[in-house]
Description:
Blueprint: E1 42-50, E2 53-62, H1 67-78, E3 85-96, H2 98-114, E4 117-121, H3 126-134, E5 141-142, H4 146-154
Parallel strand pairs: 2-3, 3-4, 4-5
Antiparallel strand pairs: 1-2
Helix pairs in contact: 1-2
Amino acid sequence: MIVFRSGTPRPPAGWSPGLGLIAAPRSPGDPPMRSSCAMATLRLSVEWPSPGVVVVSMQGEIDLACVPRLTELIRQRLTAASLRAVVLDLSGVTYSSSSGLELLIHAQRRAEHRGIDLYVVPGTGPVRRLLGLTGLLGHFTCRDTATEAVAEARR
């Protein structure tokens, strides 16, 4: 519980004791944060740009609540019989908790086990910053765009 006493700074505008939000480091270019985690949405699209290559694009926020469904979706894609490469386009992700990092690590391990190439498109925002802060940027095969990753996967 946070108690404000006289003489201490006032809480920020819009703050409510029930929110309990902890924000990741932000840069000036990041979009405004929402006031409630319940409003966070994650939109997915799955495309097959060429035989054996699948692109899973995500837009929105990745947190603990949505990771089980994401894990299942990615697991299904990684177990497809004729799959050569998976491209995870995270350039539209506006927030990712550490559970998003765990998801990427598990996806990488599963892809390596099945002999499938996994490409990550972290974009220029929160996902790239999170991968950089944790030292995991070099752990994944990252590309600047999904188009670039697909072109490399076709080779």
